[in-house]
What does this fold into?
Amino acid sequence: MDIDELRRYDLNLLVHLHVLLEECSVSRAARHLNLSQSAISRSLQRLREHFQDELFIRRPHGLQPTARALALQSELAVLLKQLSLLVRPGNFEPALCKRQFTLSAMDHIAIQLIPGLLSWLGRVAPDVRLRLHSWNNDSIRDMASGRLDLAINFVAQDRPDLYQRILCPATPVGMVGHDHPLASRQALTMAELISVPHVMVDIAEFSEMGRFDRELARKGLSRTIILETSDIQLGLEVAASNQALMIGTREMSKTLTKRHHLVLLELPAGVTFMQLNYLLTWHRLQHQDPGQCWFRQVVYDHCLALR
It folds into this structure.
């Protein structure tokens, strides 16, 4: 490929030649391209100089292509079609996609999201593969490098290189088993909240639980935590079977609360430590990628179903 030769050549002239071959008329070609007739005439003169051929002979009813122009026509049509495919936004066909998408999702979201998502992908995009990745200090850098496609968490980002889309609020609620002494209550008082044992699940993407306990301490109150764990499944099992209360979110918990037969209770007024949003986060470099756009929408739709 002679890049220097291409750099000196105006590739728009090939488009003009293609239209002239279709229209066989300077005036019709000008209307087609929304240009003046003089502009098309100048293009034709430059084309004649480049190809060292007259290309078109004027006739009473239009232009007649020369043998050289007719020889160029079929090759030109193929070339322009290839260029059009190159510069147009990429078309994405899920059924043909052979790509692995890497997703960071909070454990309680992943547990509910991934099984159904994989089943759906198996029908619609059978060669797509998923990889789960925990959120950590390197996650934003991983997004910038393409190693992480999408994240689902509470972590709001005020950065020009990141996009975020709200999935839904994260409303804090108490979770207890259906036979818990407080299960018949619709809303808890502060006294009731601190009167029962608690299970506390540490979430890597969320550090507000410590703030809640500090607020209790400032009021001269405390709660009894019988288990502190990062295992959401274990926390739910203990809450369901050991008369303990666990604080979770009303949204994005439907499957888990149903599976563990948990009852959701309103927390006392003033408990604001988890007034956040579930967020989808991705990097600007991936924003227009057709596959990424498709995957983001698929994940968004499946997350909404968890509400």
About this structure: The first strand starts at residue 56 and ends at 59. The chain has three domains: 3-87, 101-167+277-305, 172-274. The mean pLDDT is 88. The radius of gyration is 32 Å.
